[in-house]
Amino acid sequence: MTATRTGIVHLVDRQPQLSGQDMVSALVPPPQFAGATFESYRADADHPSQQEAKEKLAAFAGGGSAPARGGLFRRAKKGPEKKPGVYLDGGFGVGKTHLLAAIYHAMPARRKYFGSFIEYTALVGALGYKNTVDLFRGADLLCIDEFELDDPGDTMVMTRLLGELVASGTRLAATSNTPPNALGEGRFAAQDFLREIHAMASSFETLRIDGTDYRQRAVDGHADVLTDDEYDKRISAVAAHGLVSDDTFTALVAHLAQVHPSRYIRLIDGLDAVGVREVTAFDDQSAALRFVAFIDRVYDAQIPIRATGLSLDGVFPEEMLAGGYRKKYLRAISRLVASTLS
Question: For the chain, how many structural domains are there in total?
């Protein structure tokens, strides 16, 4: 999409198109992890599991070129066979995505892909299951960030997809989406993951990464709320030298229902800031989940959000936070807080 580079646009006027090849081309680490390496990962000395995971994953990433110790996927002359996948289990902000991106960058692979669980399931939804399998067949590596466990249908589709790809030689790396205050956080999440993808459990080695959020950002923090005058000034300031969107919350949420989630990345193409006026709480779960997917793309692109009305950390009512999609909503709240304060 070719967009005006300065001024104000309305997302509700955008009708992004995205081909299957465009979607696949977008399966790379997000901008903030474009240069992530094992060397730049700062393991916390107070949590030895971080350094241990770093060392094991470095071996994982070098597995195709016969490193000194042998890679995670090479069959050693003696000892147990290494598994074709690794699963990183831990809370927010312990560096799982950084390590996942480091694997992607370090592994000498001809065909490798990096995307969130939502991006992969959106691709299946847009292209169909068979076409997606054909597209990825023969890939050397699939990195899956924030593997979701709250939608049995999507989880089983991904299980089946990954099973077919592993059988054809594809290596896998995945992370969990467990927030630090979630019930059963820690090893429970790993057990949850392995149970849900029981057909694939034997393919994964689970690595536990302990620690505190390096961003020191509380999940229950508050997003920045602007007055109407402050909002207008902020939007105008961005528009003077960049591109900013300006939509009411209600109109934006309605528009998201008309755009396939796989195209949300194009919806925000070229933006330097996202403006949302008159924010209100959700009363429809489908709309709330689409908004979560949208915020994931905004956060990955590191685009700041400016908003009026209800604080964005309050858009998911208690009954939603108490339901089956709790993890998704808590992750979205964390990202909304960060995006409004940036």
Answer: 2
* Chain centre distance of CA 254: 23
Instruction: Tell me the per-residue pLDDT of 256-293, one tens digit each, with 9 for 90 and over.
Output: 999 988 788 889 999 999 999 999 999 999 999 999 99
Query: What does 147-176 look like in DSSP terms, one character per residue?
Result: ---S-HHHHHHHHHHHHHHHHTT-EEEEE-
Per-residue pLDDT tens over the stretch 212-226: 655 544 444 689 999
CA–CA gap between residue 121 and residue 276 (Å, rounded): 27
Q: What single-letter DSSP state applies at residue 207?
A: E
Domain housing 198: 43-208
Residue type, 242: G
Domain boundary among 173, 208, 243: 208
Domain boundary among 183, 208, 233: 208
pLDDT of 290-323, one tens digit each?
999 999 899 988 999 999 999 999 999 999 999 8
**Residue 28 domain-assigned?**
no
Residue 189 has pLDDT above 90, yes or no: no
User: Are 121 and 267 contained in the same domain?
Assistant: no
Instruction: Give long-range contacts, CB 8 A cutoff, 24+ apart: 193-202.
Output: 193/87, 193/89, 193/147, 193/149, 194/87, 196/149, 196/152, 196/155, 196/159, 197/155, 197/158, 197/159, 197/162, 199/159, 199/160, 199/163, 200/85, 200/159, 200/162, 200/163, 200/166, 202/83
